[in-house]
Amino acid sequence: MVEKVITLENVPLAEFLGEANENIRQIAAAFPQSKIISRGNEIRIQGGAPEILRINDVLNLLLEHIDRFGHLTPENVKDYLEVEGVPFEEANRDQVIVFGNKGLVIKPKSANQRKLVESAMQNDLVFALGPAGTGKTYIAVALAVRALKNREVKRIIITRPAVEAGENLGFLPGDLQEKLDPYLRPIYDALQDMVPPEKLKYYQETRVIEIAPLAYMRGRTLHDAFVLLDEAQNTTNEQIKMFLTRMGPNSKVIITGDQTQIDLPVRQKSGLSEALKILKDVKGIGVVHLSGKDVIRHRLVKSIIEAYEKDTYHKEQERNDAAGRKNNPG
After folding, report:
1. What stretches of 16-67 adopt beta strand conformation (E)?
2. What pairs with residue 5 in β-bridges?
3. Under a CB-based contact definition with an 8 Å cutoff, are residues 48 and 2 in contact?
4. Bridge partners (DSSP) listed for residue 129
5. Among 28, 30, 37, 96, CA closest to 68
6. How far apart are CA 226 and CA 214, in angstroms?
7. C-alpha span between 71 and 161 (Å, rounded)
C-alpha cells in the first residue's frame, strides 16, 4: 500500500471538491481499488502505485481546468475521467470554438454547452433553452463569429424582441438604437471578447455584423447568414413565426430563451413555448436544454436558480392539488 498526499494551494476548495465532495467521490468511484480522503486542503490517496499515478494525473487535469476556467462541475470531472491519461491541451484542443482577443480561448465549459456546439454543427436551426448565466447566448455568438471567420457565412445577424422585464422603451432617452443598446449589451460584450475593436466597428458599419430589434426582420430573407434570436421567450407567436420563415439558403439559426423569465403582458402566450410544441416533430431542428449545472457566473447564481426552480415546482404541485380537490370534492 502506497500513500500520496496532495496539498491544494490557491485553489477554491469548495468549487474544486464539489458540493458534499461530489467531485472527489466521483474520482473515488472510478478507482475502487484505491482510497481517496479529502481533509481541509489535503487530498490523501492510498493504493497501488500505478493507480495512484493515474489518480494524480486526473487531479492535475482538474487543477489545470479550475485554474483556466475558475469553476469545476461533476460533468467536467466525468469528462476528464473519460480522457484519463491524455494531456490537458490535447483533451481540450477540439473544443475550442474561436480564439478571442488578448489570447482569450472560447470553448464550451460544460457538458450541455458542448451539446449546443454539436447540435449547431448538425442542424441549421437550434433552440438553446436555459436560465440566465448558462452561457447559451455567449456560445451562440462564438459559433456565429467562427462561421464568419471560416467564411461559412457572409454576415451575422443578431436580434431580440424589444421587451424587457416590464419596462417600456418609450420612457428611455434617445433614438431607437440608443433605447435598444442597453438591452443588447450582453451581445456587444460577447462580440468585444471575440472580434478586435477596429474590425468589429468595420463589420458593424458595413453591416457584416448587424444587431437589430426583431421588428426589423419582417419582410427580409436572411441568406448566407448566421442568425441569432436572443431572449426568444419574449416573442409572440406571430413574431417567432415571422422570424422562422425568414431563413434563406445557407443560413444557420440559433434561438435562445429562458422560459422561466417571460416578460410579456399577462395572458400573452410566449411564441417560444408555442414554437417548441408546434415544431417538436420536425426533423433537422435541434433542441438543447441547459440548466443550473451549466451556470458559469458567480456560484450563488446556481443556488438562486435552483431555489427558484424548487419554488416553481412546489407552486405547480399546490395548483395541481387544488385542481384535484375541486374536481373531486367528495
Report:
1. 35-39, 42-47
2. 44
3. yes
4. 257, 289
5. 96
6. 15
7. 32
- Return phi, psi of residue 219, to 5°: 80, 0
The C-alpha cell at 154 is: 457572409
pLDDT, average across residues 239-248: 92
CB 87 within 8 A of CB 117: no
Q: Which tens digit of pLDDT belongs to each residue from 4-42?
A: 888 888 888 888 888 888 999 999 998 989 999 988 889
Q: Please give the DSSP secondary-structure letter assigned to residue 220.
A: -
Residue with cell 395572458: 267
- Residue 46 near residue 35, CB atoms below 8 Å: yes
What residue type is 108 in one-letter code?
P
pTM (predicted TM-score): 0.64
In this predicted structure, the answer to whether residue 168 has a pLDDT above a threshold of 50 is no
Q: 88: which 3 cell numbers?
A: 490537458
Comparing CA positions, the residue from 60, 53, 7, 9 lying closest to residue 31 is 53
Q: In the chain, where do the E strands start and end?
A: 2-7, 35-39, 42-47, 98-99, 105-106, 125-129, 155-160, 209-213, 225-229, 252-257, 285-289
Q: Is 144 left (phi over 0), alpha (psi -120 to 50) or beta?
A: alpha
Q: Is 289 helix (H, G, I), strand (E, B) or coil?
A: strand
pLDDT exceeding 70 applies to what percent of the chain?
Answer: 86
